[in-house]
Amino acid sequence: MLVWLAENAPTAEVRHPADFLPAEIAERAQEALARSPEPPPAQEPVERRCADCMKLPAKPGIRAVEIGTDAVCDMCGSSANKRAALAMIEAFRTRGLRRLLVVGGGPGTAEDLRRLLAGEVDIRIVDGEGHRNAAKADADLRWADVVAVWSSTILSHKVSKLYTDRRDAFGGKLVTVPRRGVAALCMAVIEKVGLTTW
After folding, report:
1. Could you say which of 18, 166, 181, 188 is the most buried, measured as most Cβ atoms within 10 Å of its Cβ?
2. Which domain of life does the protein's organism represent (predicted)?
């Protein structure tokens, strides 16, 4: 009997569950599976900042996150000079200023200032030991929005006098910087323009 059943019984076809679905539903399911999945939402860029740089405005589309003192700040690189330069750039931007004249300073600090302010503040630096006459000093004073006389650096009296003697006409632009260092100069300029950011 088993032999007869094996030879004469109808064969059972193996059927897929999808065979029992109406054709239109199967078609819609295949289309949905063929579509590429939605990309995950874009992560908002994050800028890690020290406490001082947190006081400066964030760039559009970037979220600032405060870091501890042991981590490096993405904005200033944990450099006091760069931090002060960034604050001065912001003070200039807020006040609508663009041009800074620095009278005095050594070659190293002049190079640092140019690098830190590049593309943000137009800067001219008068060599404190160079030759300057009254006409050039007058043109410098008229050009500048702020004039920083860096008294504690390499600066001869005959050069500084060309600028400080014009306080009657240009006193609103002049600030004397009594300390050395790029950060000290930037902070004195910030105070002059009336925007102490920290």
Report:
1. 188
2. Bacteria
Can you say whether residue 81 is alpha, beta or left, with left for phi > 0 and alpha for psi between -120 and 50 degrees? alpha
Residue 190 CA to residue 184 CA, distance in Å, equals: 10
* pTM of this structure: 0.70
Q: What is the mean pLDDT of the chain?
A: 84
Question: 66: which strand partners?
Answer: 49
Give the count of domains, the chain: 2
- Please provide the DSSP assignment of 62-74 as one string: -EEEE--TTSPPT
Mean per-residue pLDDT for 69-83? 89
Place of tokens 């300390």: 179
Whole-angstrom distance, CA of residue 82 vs CA of residue 76: 5
Domain residues for 93? Answer: 79-192
Last residue of a domain, one of 29, 59, 78: 78
**Residues 112 and 182 sit within 8 Å (Cβ to Cβ):** yes
| Spatial separation of the C-alpha atoms in residues 54 and 67, rounded to whole Å | 9
What SS3 state is found at 123? Answer: strand
Q: Tokens at residue 86, please?
A: 């960034």
